[in-house]
Amino acid sequence: MSSPASPARVWAIVPAAGRGARFGATAGTPKQYVAFAGRSVLEWSLRALLAEPRIAGLVVAIAAGDERWPALAAALDDPRLDAAIGGAERQDSVESGLAHLAGRAAPQDWVLVHDAARPCLSRADLAALIDVLGDQPPGALLAAPVVDTVKRERDGVVADTVDRTALWRALTPQVFRYAELAAALADARASGVLVTDEAQAMERLGVRARLVKGSPLNVKITRVEDLELATGIMKAMGVASMRIGQGFDVHTFGDGDHVVLGGVRIPYTRGVVAHSDGDVVIHALCDAVLGALGQGDIGQHFPDTDPRYRGADSRVFLREVAARMRAAGMTLVNADVTVLAEAPRIARHRAAMAANLGADLGVCADVINIKATTTERMGFVGRGEGLAASAAVLLDAAPAGAA
Ligand code: MG
After folding, report:
1. CA 196/CA 234 separation, integer angstroms
2. Final residue in a domain of this structure, among 236, 263, 287
3. CA of 272 to the centre of ligand 1 (A)
């Protein structure tokens, strides 16, 4: 039992069990797991909270059987992070989060509830909200003044203009005392009232939460076009960043009459020793893109011990890697590939190679530069024992429509 004198701690609950809203090219993906600018909506929202050291613990209320959660939890790797099984409604999920905190949170501790679908919460707004708790208000929430003129409609036409001077849009986080929030939600439930935010449950009991002016950029993702907006906001906040990656691959020459580079079959007096078609250009490029995504390397995704990949067309690998890039909400800005070989000469195949690579990656061929060099007869390349390729790529957040 904590003594009354001990300072109230701040806990966070994120209801993320919603299964209803699904959109985007990844149809069937719950809204909170749709990605933009390299991360899912939920991951951005959780990172915004975890960046605040005054949050003692964070419970994410997930759907039962959420198969995406374990990987996200592992990626976030924060000991303050915990999951509970939420419910169909936001209120169910918040209550399950509160139940999960029972025993850890004291009655006077603060519980901050944040929408899973508000990924653009700034550190400054979160800090300002927590700062206000030092004044011991009955509760507080981020909110933005209504700036548009608001009309009331009746039968499809304007009935009147609503005085907007006292109107605010409720954002999240919203923060209340643990025991009071639990009691307010229980009371709403007992009365058969389904609240749309925590402040509403508190209002019913006469609690007057403080409005803390927050940025209107703290948008809620409800439609596919909101992802476009959020991408721009993240860039403007300097949060969403470009990603670079590099890759390198080598294959030994062996028996054969051709090599495959950039998906182009080039006649030669030798072939390459490889499990797949031994396309060093595509293998290096796949590794560069996977590296930029932080998703390991080509060997992890397409192991050369897998019989499915014997003699495989490496363009299949590149298309799969491109799908991973799109699923992360990223697109290729440009790629620069260097082939290291004494022979064969590739100059007249460069345009065809770039066309293949561009098609597989879903970008114009002219953002893919392919060049070649010998190694002045030095080393394994110089002795004609094999050939190699290196690739560098730059990725950026994709427009939402492209995902
Ligand atoms: Mg290889």
Report:
1. 26
2. 236
3. 10
Query: Which residue in this structure is represented by tokens 């799109």?
Result: 326
Q: Which pair of structure tokens corresponds to residue 300?
A: 């992890």
Quick check: 170 and 181 in contact, CB under 8 A?
A: no
Distance 370 CA to ligand 1 centre (A): 17
- Cis bond before residue 344 (omega within 30° of 0): yes
**Residue 358 CA, ligand 1 centroid: distance in Å:** 20
- DSSP characters for 382-393? HTTSEEEEEEEE
Distance CA 236, CA 47 (A): 17
Question: Ligand 1 centroid vs 286 CA: distance in angstroms?
Answer: 10
CA 352 to centroid of ligand 1, rounded, Å: 20
Residue 400, C-beta contacts closer than 8 angstroms, at least 6 positions apart: 24, 36, 224, 225, 227, 228, 231, 329
Assess if residue 310 is contained within a domain. Answer: yes
Cα distance between residue 263 and residue 283, in whole Å: 11
Centre of ligand 1 to C-alpha 376, Å, is: 23
User: Averaged in consecutive runs of 10 residues, what is the pLDDT profile of the chain (403 residues)?
Assistant: 69 88 67 89 96 97 94 95 94 97 96 97 97 96 95 94 93 97 96 92 94 96 90 86 94 96 96 93 98 94 87 94 92 97 94 97 96 94 96 88 44
321 Cα to the center of ligand 1, angstroms: 15
pLDDT of residue 401: 47
Together in a domain, 153 and 24: yes
Size of the chain, expressed as the number of residues it contains: 403
Residue 1 lies in a domain: no
Structural tokens at position 95: 């209550």
284 C-alpha to ligand 1 centroid (Å):
7
pTM above 0.90, yes or no: no
Domain membership of residue 403 (yes or no) is no
* 251 C-alpha to ligand 1 centroid (Å): 6
**From the CA of 348, how far away is ligand 1's center (Å)?**
23
In whole angstroms, give the CA distance from residue 403 to residue 397: 10
Domain, as residue range, for 15? 10-236
Residue 29: strand, helix, or coil: coil
Name the domain boundary from 178, 205, 236.
236
